[in-house]
Protein backbone atom coordinates (compact mmCIF):
# COMPACT_ATOMS: atom_id res chain seq x y z
CA UNK A 1 0.00 0.00 0.00
CA UNK A 2 2.84 2.38 0.80
CA UNK A 3 4.44 1.64 -2.56
CA UNK A 4 1.19 2.55 -4.38
CA UNK A 5 0.96 5.84 -2.51
CA UNK A 6 4.62 6.61 -3.19
CA UNK A 7 4.27 5.81 -6.91
CA UNK A 8 1.11 7.94 -7.10
CA UNK A 9 2.89 10.88 -5.48
CA UNK A 10 5.91 10.54 -7.79
CA UNK A 11 3.73 10.36 -10.90
CA UNK A 12 1.64 13.30 -9.64
CA UNK A 13 4.68 15.50 -9.03
CA UNK A 14 6.15 14.48 -12.40
CA UNK A 15 2.90 15.55 -14.06
CA UNK A 16 3.04 18.91 -12.28
CA UNK A 17 6.66 19.40 -13.32
CA UNK A 18 5.75 18.62 -16.94
CA UNK A 19 2.85 21.06 -16.84
CA UNK A 20 5.10 23.75 -15.41
CA UNK A 21 7.41 23.88 -18.44
CA UNK A 22 4.61 24.35 -20.98
CA UNK A 23 4.01 27.76 -22.56
CA UNK A 24 1.04 29.76 -21.30
CA UNK A 25 -1.96 30.17 -23.63
CA UNK A 26 -1.09 33.74 -24.60
CA UNK A 27 2.61 33.12 -25.26
CA UNK A 28 2.30 33.56 -29.02
CA UNK A 29 0.52 36.89 -28.57
CA UNK A 30 3.15 39.60 -28.38
CA UNK A 31 3.66 43.19 -29.57
CA UNK A 32 5.27 42.02 -32.83
CA UNK A 33 2.23 39.96 -33.73
CA UNK A 34 -0.03 42.90 -32.92
CA UNK A 35 2.08 45.17 -35.16
CA UNK A 36 2.01 42.67 -38.03
CA UNK A 37 -1.76 42.34 -37.62
CA UNK A 38 -2.04 46.16 -37.79
CA UNK A 39 -0.04 46.37 -41.03
CA UNK A 40 -1.97 43.47 -42.54
CA UNK A 41 -5.32 45.07 -41.70
CA UNK A 42 -4.25 48.44 -43.12
CA UNK A 43 -2.71 47.09 -46.33
CA UNK A 44 -4.94 44.12 -47.11
CA UNK A 45 -8.26 45.07 -45.52
CA UNK A 46 -9.63 45.85 -48.97
CA UNK A 47 -9.50 42.10 -49.57
CA UNK A 48 -12.84 41.95 -47.79
CA UNK A 49 -14.56 43.27 -50.96
CA UNK A 50 -13.65 40.39 -53.31
CA UNK A 51 -13.95 37.93 -50.43
CA UNK A 52 -17.52 39.06 -49.77
CA UNK A 53 -18.23 38.88 -53.51
CA UNK A 54 -17.00 35.28 -53.75
CA UNK A 55 -18.84 34.19 -50.63
CA UNK A 56 -22.13 35.61 -51.94
CA UNK A 57 -21.51 34.40 -55.50
CA UNK A 58 -21.41 30.84 -54.15
CA UNK A 59 -25.16 31.14 -53.58
CA UNK A 60 -25.62 31.79 -57.31
CA UNK A 61 -26.94 35.35 -57.32
CA UNK A 62 -24.50 37.61 -59.22
CA UNK A 63 -26.38 40.90 -58.86
CA UNK A 64 -26.77 40.39 -55.13
CA UNK A 65 -23.08 39.47 -54.95
CA UNK A 66 -22.13 42.80 -56.55
CA UNK A 67 -24.36 44.80 -54.23
CA UNK A 68 -23.23 42.97 -51.14
CA UNK A 69 -19.57 43.29 -52.12
CA UNK A 70 -19.94 47.03 -52.51
CA UNK A 71 -21.90 47.60 -49.31
CA UNK A 72 -20.83 44.93 -46.83
CA UNK A 73 -17.35 44.37 -48.25
CA UNK A 74 -16.57 48.09 -48.16
CA UNK A 75 -17.89 48.33 -44.61
CA UNK A 76 -15.74 45.40 -43.52
CA UNK A 77 -12.71 46.91 -45.28
CA UNK A 78 -13.19 50.23 -43.50
CA UNK A 79 -13.59 48.40 -40.19
CA UNK A 80 -10.31 46.58 -40.86
CA UNK A 81 -8.64 49.90 -41.64
CA UNK A 82 -9.88 51.34 -38.34
CA UNK A 83 -8.76 48.29 -36.36
CA UNK A 84 -5.39 48.42 -38.11
CA UNK A 85 -4.88 52.10 -37.24
CA UNK A 86 -5.91 51.42 -33.63
CA UNK A 87 -3.52 48.49 -33.30
CA UNK A 88 -0.70 50.40 -34.99
CA UNK A 89 -0.94 53.15 -32.38
CA UNK A 90 -1.35 50.80 -29.40
CA UNK A 91 0.91 47.90 -30.41
CA UNK A 92 3.41 48.30 -27.51
CA UNK A 93 0.64 48.05 -24.91
CA UNK A 94 -1.59 45.12 -23.93
CA UNK A 95 -4.99 46.72 -24.52
CA UNK A 96 -7.63 44.02 -24.95
CA UNK A 97 -8.31 42.26 -21.63
CA UNK A 98 -4.68 42.77 -20.56
CA UNK A 99 -3.28 40.92 -23.56
CA UNK A 100 -2.23 41.49 -27.16
CA UNK A 101 -5.23 39.65 -28.61
CA UNK A 102 -7.19 41.21 -31.43
CA UNK A 103 -10.20 43.12 -30.07
CA UNK A 104 -12.40 41.72 -32.85
CA UNK A 105 -11.31 38.09 -32.70
CA UNK A 106 -14.03 35.82 -31.32
CA UNK A 107 -13.57 32.17 -30.42
CA UNK A 108 -16.85 31.40 -32.15
CA UNK A 109 -15.78 32.81 -35.52
CA UNK A 110 -18.59 33.51 -37.94
CA UNK A 111 -17.17 34.17 -41.44
CA UNK A 112 -20.23 36.18 -42.49
CA UNK A 113 -20.33 38.60 -39.58
CA UNK A 114 -17.15 38.21 -37.54
CA UNK A 115 -13.54 39.01 -38.39
CA UNK A 116 -10.63 36.62 -38.52
CA UNK A 117 -7.34 37.66 -36.96
CA UNK A 118 -5.80 38.50 -40.34
CA UNK A 119 -7.58 39.77 -43.47
CA UNK A 120 -8.49 37.36 -46.26
CA UNK A 121 -5.85 36.51 -48.84
CA UNK A 122 -6.01 37.41 -52.50
CA UNK A 123 -5.94 34.60 -55.03
CA UNK A 124 -5.90 30.95 -54.08
CA UNK A 125 -4.20 28.98 -51.34
CA UNK A 126 -1.87 26.12 -52.04
CA UNK A 127 0.28 24.16 -49.64
CA UNK A 128 2.80 23.25 -52.34
CA UNK A 129 3.46 24.58 -55.83
CA UNK A 130 3.47 21.10 -57.34
CA UNK A 131 1.94 17.68 -56.98
CA UNK A 132 3.02 14.17 -57.83
CA UNK A 133 0.65 14.07 -60.77
CA UNK A 134 2.25 16.98 -62.63
CA UNK A 135 5.23 16.16 -64.86
CA UNK A 136 7.50 18.99 -63.61
Structure report:
- This protein has 4 helices and no strands.
- With 136 residues, it is mainly α.
- The longest helix is centred in the middle third of the chain and has 28 residues.
- The chain is elongated and about 75 Å long.
- The termini are far apart.
- The model has no long low-confidence stretch (mean pLDDT 74).
Mean pLDDT across all amino acids: 74
Radius of gyration, whole Å: 23 Å
Largest sheet: none
Model regions low in confidence, pLDDT < 50 over at least 5 residues: none
Residue fraction in strands: under 5%
Topology:
Blueprint: H1 2-20, H2 31-44, H3 48-57, H4 62-89
Helix pairs in contact: 2-4, 3-4
What structural keywords apply?
136 residues, mainly alpha, 4 helices, elongated
Q: Could you give a quick summary of the protein structure above?
A:
The protein has about 140 residues and is mainly alpha-helical. The chain is built from 4 helices and no strands.
Amino acid sequence: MKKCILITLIVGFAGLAYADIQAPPGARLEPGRKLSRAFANILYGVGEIPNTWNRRLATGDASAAFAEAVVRGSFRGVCRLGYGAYELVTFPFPTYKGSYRAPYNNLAYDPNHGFAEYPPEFGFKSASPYSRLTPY
